[in-house]
Amino acid sequence: MRRSAEWYGGDDRNSYIHRAWMRRGLPADAFDGRPHIAMANTASDLTPCNAHLNEVSRSVADGIHEAGGIALNLPVVSLGETQVKPTAMLWRNMAAMAIEEMLRANPIDGVVLLGGCDKTIPALLMAAASVDIPAVVVPGGPMLTGTFRGVPLGCGTGVWQLSEEVRAGTMSAAEFQRSESSMIRSRGHCNTMGTASTMGLLAEALGMTLPGIAGTPAPDSRLLEAAHATGVLSVSLVDEARRPSDVMTRASFLNAIVALAALGGSTNAVVHLLAIAGRLGVSLSQDDFDRIGSGVPLLVDLQPAGRFLMDDLYRAGGLHAVLREVRDLLDPDAITVTGRPLVSYLDDAEVYDREVIRARETPLQPEAGIAVLYGNLAPDGAVIKPAAATPALLSHRGPAVVFDSIEDLHARLDDPDLEVTADSVLILRGCGPKGYPGMPEVSNMPLPAKLLAQGVRDMVRVCDGRMSGTAYGTVVLHVSPEAAAGGPLAKVRTGDIIVLDVAKRRLDVDIPDEELAARPPEPAAVAAYATPTRGWEKLYVDTVGQANTGADLDFLVGSSGWTVSRESH
Ligand code: FES
Ligand code: MG
Fold first, then answer.
1. Closest CA to 142 of 188, 98, 207, 102
2. Where is the Dihydroxy-acid/6-phosphogluconate dehydratase C-terminal domain (predicted)?
3. Residues 178 and 198 in one domain
4. Are residues 116 and 251 in the same domain?
5. Which value does ipTM take for this structure?
6. Ligand 1, atom 2: closest residue by C-alpha
7. CA torsion angle for 369, 440, 44, 556 (degrees, to 10)?
8. Which is nearest to 140 in space by CA: 56, 204, 209?
9. Could you tell me the distance, in angstroms and rounded to a whole number, from the CA of residue 143 to the centre of ligand 1?
10. Are the C-beta atoms of residues 167 and 143 closer than 8 Å to each other?
11. Residue 163 sits in which domain range?
12. What is the pLDDT of residues 254-311, one digit of tens each?
């Protein structure tokens, strides 16, 4: 029996109530057992990257109706990465929890998940995984390429670059502002290989989209065509009872890790994939990213590490063309929402621009992926994206310059008397899930103005927060446990020698272990941690896990399934 029939089937008082209030134009045969499919839609004017999804959902609805289903618009919590403070990540789990509850509570047989901006696709997938009803993603797609001074200006990445030019005195503030409207050329999410692009593409690599659609630019007519086809597909998905747990197996996650590396995707994908896997009970660890990903060549030349933008990737052949190059590394058994294996869609893929998508034999880097570091500074691990780093800094030894909060950093960074050289290691703590709270994207700290003026453009930086997927630099992220959860990062003092050795996968402070163990956390660090007393922030700080396991709330890990046993009247 369909889920919806538990509400609408029968002729008792409760089924009458469930049907009657839905009869606003719906004919009687809407309740004859055909699939009721929700469109979980993160469209919001305050999530500008997703504002076009109402139009996309109309195409999904057309497809659902065409295939004999009932399409139901379900607006869900949305998160505008650039708009909400202190960080959208604080509410990824809240959005996932709210969406999960509404998918379970309502009379639906399946769901089409419409997302785009960074946290929206992860939250939708976490929710769908915990309810485990048939689900398929429509990624909202990237913006078209904007240009400034005749050259492409990547979303996010361009902001970091131009703002450093202003600080270095090589660009005026007025010119900086002029670039604003050039960057955001159209509807859609950031067009660099940031978190939104990465998670849209990985949703497909996981098997959770109609094959071939991820990366379709938001204003492209083909996105609406794909949305329509996804609506049609969602009905067969319900008929065939194919659930997220059938599609997102360990094999699918390992395929996503290969894709992440070949694409040069965002470090944030590590946290999101771990959280989604946690909802499904799929065993996946941070080490899987290093073990599998670090042997994968970097094939896609996109900003922030490279040159091109998402529109170029689509033009050059898209995700399937990339995956075809690494086909031998993919698990052939991992299926997609269509029931067919992911690899079965790669035969026809072609690369149309070898500048954008490199051949396996001539990669941009032979070993991409994400490296996971351990050491006395990161007992539970930390990550670095070597592809976005300066090669010479990947093995480095230098004195720490410690900041206890982002405010402390902003107050002192440009002080001409700050004792710092290009060899220093900048440390920022209190930016983990509990400490900030919400693990913001602040790890790519700006460089001290006096060093910028000397021409320094990268330094080793270490932080327990995250970094925007559009950012770059030799930045060690996601240090676990974070300082606020008792991590040794809280004990480091300015002047301690920090040793980074990415080849050996080590991050240490050069202090004997006994001495480090005996040191108390620095009082100024402890004073800077968040101590919320009510509301979501309190629940979050009390129950959030560390980055190395996906930073989900402890009581949200796992699944509650779709069953609701009690009636509402
Ligand atoms: Fe929405 Fe970048 S701000 S994707
Ligand atoms: Mg971001």
1. 188
2. 355-551
3. no
4. yes
5. 0.91
6. 190
7. 80
8. 56
9. 10
10. no
11. 146-183
12. 999 999 999 999 999 999 999 999 999 999 999 999 999 988 999 999 998 889 999 9
For residue 52, what is the domain's CATH number?
Answer: 3.40.50.2300
118 lines ligand 1 (CB under 6 A): yes
Ligand 1: which of 49, 121, 470 to mutate, judged by most atoms within 8 Å of the beta carbon? Answer: 49
Please provide the size of the chain in residues. Answer: 569
Residue 128 Cα to ligand 2 middle (Å): 22
Claim to verify: residue 59 and residue 154 sit in the same structural domain: no
**Do 47 and 128 sit in the same domain of this protein?**
yes
Q: Are 173 and 220 part of one and the same domain?
A: no
Within 10 A of 74 (CB to CB), how many other CB atoms are there? Answer: 18
> In the block, which residue shows the tokens 């200006």?
153
Domains in the chain, number = 3
**Is position 564 within any domain?**
no
Q: Does residue 193 line the site of ligand 1, with CB under 6 A? A: no
CB 413 within 8 A of CB 449: yes
Beta strands in 481-521 (DSSP E): 497-501, 506-509
The pLDDT-based confidence of 85 (bands split at 50, 70, 90) is very high
* pTM of the complete model beyond 0.95: yes
Please check whether residues 93 and 161 belong to one and the same domain.
Answer: no
Cα–Cα distance for residue pair 443/75, rounded to 1 Å: 32
When computed from its CA atoms, the radius of gyration of the chain, rounded to whole angstroms, is: 24
Residue with the nearest Cα to atom 1 of ligand 1? 117
Give tens-digit pLDDT for 154-209: 988 888 888 888 888 889 999 999 888 889 999 999 999 999 999 999 999 999 99
Phi, psi of 497 (to 5 degrees): -90, 125
- Spell out where 240-291 has E strands: none
Please check whether residues 118 and 234 belong to one and the same domain.
yes
Cα gap 547→167, rounded to integer Å: 32
Instruction: Report d(CA 211, CA 334) in Å as an integer.
Output: 13
What are 303-339's pLDDT values in tens digits?
988 899 999 999 999 999 999 999 999 999 999 999 9
Ligand 1 in reach of 190 Cβ (< 6 A): yes
* Nearby residues for ligand 2 (ion, Cβ within 5 Å): 81, 118, 195, 468
- Is-cis flag, bond preceding 217, omega within 30? no
* Ligand whose nearest atom lies closest to the CA of 190: 1
Q: Would the pLDDT of 470 be above 80?
A: no
CATH code of 439's domain: 3.50.30.80
Tell how far CA 232 is from the center of its chain: 27
Determine the atom of ligand 1 nearest the C-alpha atom of 81. 3
* Cα 112 versus chain centre, distance: 19
What is the tens place of the pLDDT at every residue in 346-359?
A: 999 999 999 999 99
- Least-confidence region, from 90-99, 289-298, 421-430, 517-526: 289-298
Q: Parallel, antiparallel, or unpaired for β 70-75 and 36-41?
A: parallel
In a domain? residue 221: yes
Q: Which amino acid is present at 171?
A: M
